[in-house]
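Renewal narrative, Specific Aim 1. Our central claim is that a sequence can be written position by position from structural information alone. The example that follows is taken directly from our test logs and has not been curated for this report. It begins with the C-alpha cells describing the chain, in the order in which they were read.
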C-alpha cells in the first residue's frame, strides 16, 4: 500500500525548528518530532509501506495520521506535488512578518510612530517590494500581515497581494484605518480566496476618534467598516488608544464596538511618541496615571455583564466572557533560572519590516533613533538578516545579557520576575539604548501592581461569577 500526504500539506524546516507540517492555504504549522517526521517523509506516494521501514511505533503514528485525515492510502503509486516535499530554510523560523508596505497615510493621527502623513520612512518601489516578497518566500515565511501607514493607499496594493499569494504565503491580517476599506476591496479579497483578520483603530465615541485621527467623520466610518466586515464574515479586532480626554468614554466605546458585531478589543495607553508629545493638547498620561485609571475597569467589565467577548487592557489584564481573567504582564519564575529566558518572547516567531525595508523586532522601535542599528534588507538580504545579523543577536538576547550591561537592573530586587521589561519601551523612555531600564516596569513592580491586578480580578469574579 502507498501512502500520500493530503494535497494541502507540505513538509518544512528551519534553523531551530527542523521538522514541521504546514497546512495550506492558511499556513498553520504543526511541529513534528523525529518519528513523526520520518513517517510523513515516507508518505510520498511512491514508497510502499510498511515493508521493513517502520517500527511498531511508527506504524501506530501512520495509522493515526490516516485516521486524522492527514494521509491517504492508495493501492497505486502517485507522487506528491513538487511543493509538498521537505524543504529546509537556512534561517530562523518566522511564522509571520508584519510589513509596513508604505509610510504614507490618508489620516493625520496625532501619535503615529512614523509621522505617516509626511511619510517619514517613505516606501519601497514596486520592484523593491516584489523582490522583498520573493525573499520572504525564499526564507520560508508562512504568513504576512499588511500595515502602514495605511496599506490601501498604495496604487500597487493588489500587485503586492497577488505576488504574496503566488509565492505560497498567506495574508493573515490587514491593519487599516478603514476609510478605504469598502465592498469593492472585500470583493477583491474574496475573489482571491483571502479572508484576513481585520485590525481597526477606534479611539472613542463623542468625537474623540475624529480628534485622534485628524479626519472629520472617521468615527462614523470606522463603525460602519466594522459592521461591513462582520456582515462579510471577517474577524475584526479593534484597538483603542486611551488618554486623559477619552478615558471616560471607555464603557460607551466598548458598547459601540460590541454593537457593531466586534468581539475582540484592546485598550492601551497612547505611546509617548515624538508626534504625540507635540499634539496631545494636555491629554498625555503617565504610566502610573494609566494603571491607576484602568484597574477599576476590571470590575466594570464584570459589573457590566462582560459586554464584549474579549477585552484586553494593555499591560493590565485580559478579560473574557468564557474564561477567567489573566494578568497580562510578563512574569518570570523569580529564580536565577530566569537569567536564561529570552529578553522578549513576542519577537521569537515574528518580525517587523519598516516602509523603507529595515528589519526590526517590533513596530514601536520605529520611533527610536536606535532603529538605525538594525539592517536594511536591501543592504544585506532577508536571509542573512534572519540568520546572522545584529537583528538576530537581539532576538537571541537573554535576560543575563541585560543584567550584565545594566547595573540598575542587576541590583533590582525584582530582576528575576521582571526580566528587564520591554526593550522598545526602554528605548523610548530611558535614553539608555537597547539595554536601558524599562521605567514602566520599574513602576509596575515597585508599586505592587501585579498583586493589585490579581486582586481586582479575584474580587470581580467572586462578586459577579467567573465562567471557566
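The sequence written for that structure reads:
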Amino acid at each position: 500500500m502507498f501512502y500520500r500526504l493530503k494535497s494541502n500539506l507540505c513538509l518544512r524546516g528551519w534553523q531551530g525548528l527542523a521538522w514541521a507540517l504546514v497546512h495550506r492555504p492558511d499556513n498553520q504549522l504543526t511541529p513534528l518530532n523525529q518519528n513523526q517526521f520520518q513517517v510523513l517523509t515516507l508518505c510520498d506516494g511512491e514508497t510502499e509501506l510498511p515493508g521493513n521501514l517502520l517500527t511498531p511505533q511508527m506504524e501506530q503514528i501512520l495509522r493515526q495520521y490516516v485516521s486524522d485525515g492527514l494521509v491517504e492510502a492508495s493501492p497505486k503509486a502517485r507522487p506528491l506535488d513538487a511543493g509538498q516535499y521537505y524543504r529546509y530554510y537556512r534561517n530562523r523560523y518566522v511564522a509571520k512578518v508584519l510589513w509596513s508596505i508604505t509610510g504614507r497615510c490618508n489620516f493625520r493621527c496625532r501619535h503615529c510612530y512614523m509621522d505617516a502623513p509626511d511619510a517619514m520612512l517613505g516606501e519601497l518601489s514596486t520592484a523593491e517590494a516584489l523582490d522583498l516578497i520573493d525573499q520572504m518566500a525564499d526564507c520560508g515565511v508562512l504568513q504576512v500581515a499588511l500595515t502602514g501607514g495605511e496599506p490601501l493607499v498604495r496604487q500597487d496594493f493588489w500587485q503586492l497581494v497577488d505576488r504574496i499569494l503566488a509565492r505560497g504565503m498567506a495574508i493573515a491580517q490587514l491593519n487599516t484605518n478603514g476609510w478605504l476599506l469598502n465592498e469593492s476591496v472585500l470583493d477583491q479579497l474574496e475573489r482571491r480566496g483571502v479572508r484576513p483578520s481585520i485590525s481597526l483603530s477606534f479611539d472613542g465615541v463623542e468625537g474623540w476618534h475624529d480628534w485622534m485621527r485628524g479626519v472629520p467623520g472617521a468615527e462614523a466610518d470606522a463603525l460602519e467598516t466594522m459592521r461591513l466586515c462582520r456582515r462579510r464574515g471577517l474577524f475584526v479586532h479593534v484597538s483603542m488608544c486611551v488618554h486623559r480626554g477619552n478615558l471616560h468614554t471607555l464603557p460607551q466605546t466598548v458598547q459601540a464596538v460590541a454593537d457593531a458585531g466586534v468581539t475582540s478589543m484592546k485598550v492601551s495607553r497612547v505611546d509617548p511618541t515624538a508626534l504625540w508629545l507635540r499634539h496631545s493638547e494636555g491629554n498625555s498620561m503617565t504610566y502610573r496615571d494609566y494603571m491607576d485609571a484602568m484597574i477599576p475597569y476590571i470590575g466594570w467589565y464584570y459589573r457590566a455583564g462582560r459586554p464584549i467577548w474579549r477585552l484586553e487592557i494593555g499591560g493590565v489584564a485580559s478579560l473574557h466572557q468564557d474564561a477567567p481573567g489573566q494578568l497580562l504582564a510578563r512574569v518570570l519564575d523569580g529564580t536565577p533560572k530566569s537569567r536564561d529566558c529570552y529578553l522578549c518572547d513576542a519577537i521569537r516567531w515574528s518580525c517587523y519590516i519598516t516602509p523603507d525595508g529595515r528589519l526590526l523586532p517590533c513596530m514601536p522601535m520605529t520611533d527610536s533613533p536606535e532603529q538605525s542599528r538594525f539592517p536594511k534588507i536591501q543592504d544585506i538580504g532577508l536571509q542573512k538578516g534572519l540568520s546572522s545579523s545584529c537583528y538576530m543577536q537581539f532576538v537571541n538576547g537573554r535576560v543575563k545579557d541585560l543584567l550584565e550591561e545594566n547595573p540598575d537592573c542587576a541590583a533590582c530586587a525584582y530582576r528575576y520576575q521582571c526580566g528587564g521589561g520591554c526593550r522598545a519601551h526602554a528605548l523610548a523612555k530611558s535614553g539608555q539604548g537597547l539595554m536601558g531600564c524599562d521605567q514602566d516596569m520599574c513602576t509596575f513592580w515597585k508599586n505592587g501592581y501585579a498583586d493589585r491586578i490579581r486582586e481586582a480580578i479575584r474580587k470581580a469574579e467572586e462578586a459577579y461569577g467567573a465562567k471557566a
